[in-house]
Amino acid sequence: MNEQSTEAATEVTEEQRQSVRVMVVDDHPMWRDAVARDLAAAGFDVVATAGDGPQAVRRAQAVSPQVLVLDLNLPGMPGVQVCRELVGADPELRVLVLSASGEHADVLEAVKSGATGYLLKSASTQELTDAVSRTAVGDPVFTPGLAGLVLGEYRRLASDPAPAAPDEPRAPQLTDRETEVLRLVAKGLSYKQIAERLVISHRTVQNHVQNTLGKLQLHNRVELVRYAIERGLDGS
Asked: CB–CB of 20/64 below 8 Å?
């Protein structure tokens, strides 16, 4: 990976990085080892690597990483299925796709499968380490140009929401602050941007999002944004 620098969107200390358990999945041994080495050099705790889909599922279940850096083109089981299975079993797992493909269909399929972000393999080492840092704290991370695509898909999905079940319970009441944070999440702002906008800490934003997910019985940011857009909270 090259060494071009990029501006970090979320400041994460060396000590915080050491507490982030990361697993790297890629079928190319040299690339996989290089990514794992770069992340370890940046201070992350690289707990495992894997070279195919079934191996990735087994090892992730054994070592419980916080962030999975995942290629999509894997033998044995495609990356989107790996993502779907692991996030379905552990909604707290953050998945950062690191792929050579910038095809819109691949990006959207990864996000629908539960990926938190999507980075192209042309990214620099600094961009990768920043992306893993941001992914670890729940920020969505996309190669420039892809974030708008994903937000547009949220809007498309929300234009035809699934019908409510006849006995669906009444929606829980969110606080004014939780609603405000939810509205900014739906607009595509990162947690850091929301914190700056509302003059609160990054951790407070995370807490509001987690509380909202719990109240709404949702599992991830994808579902949260769809919920917000369905209710017109994105201002569209």
From this structure: no
In whole angstroms, give the CA distance from residue 192 to residue 36. 26
Q: Using CA atoms, how far apart are residues 141 and 228, in angstroms rounded to an integer?
A: 19
State how far the Cα of 60 lies from the Cα of 49, in Å rounded to an integer. 9
The token duo for 226 is: 């769809």
Q: Does domain 14-151 have CATH number 3.40.50.2300?
A: yes
In the CATH hierarchy, which fold is given to the domain comprising 169-230?
Arc Repressor Mutant, subunit A (1.10.10)
**Nearest Cα residue to 24 out of 16, 8, 63:** 63
Under 8 Å between Cβ of 38 and 1: yes
Kindly report whether the global pTM for this prediction surpasses the value 0.70: no
Boundaries of every domain in the chain:
14-151, 169-230
- For 110-169, write each residue's pLDDT tens digit: 888 889 889 999 999 999 999 999 999 888 888 877 766 666 666 565 555 555 544 545
Among 107-121, 179-193, 217-231, the least confident range: 217-231
List, for residues 78-99, the tens digit of each pLDDT value.
Answer: 999 999 999 888 888 999 999 9
Q: How far apart are CA 102 and CA 146, in angstroms?
A: 8
**Residues 99 and 72: beta-carbon distance below 8 Å:** yes
Q: For residues 187 and 190, give the distance between their C-alpha atoms in angstroms, rounded to a whole number.
A: 9
Phi-psi label, residue 228: left if phi above 0, alpha if psi -120 to 50, beta otherwise: alpha
Distances, alpha carbon 61 to alpha carbons 49, 84, 122, in Å = 12, 13, 29
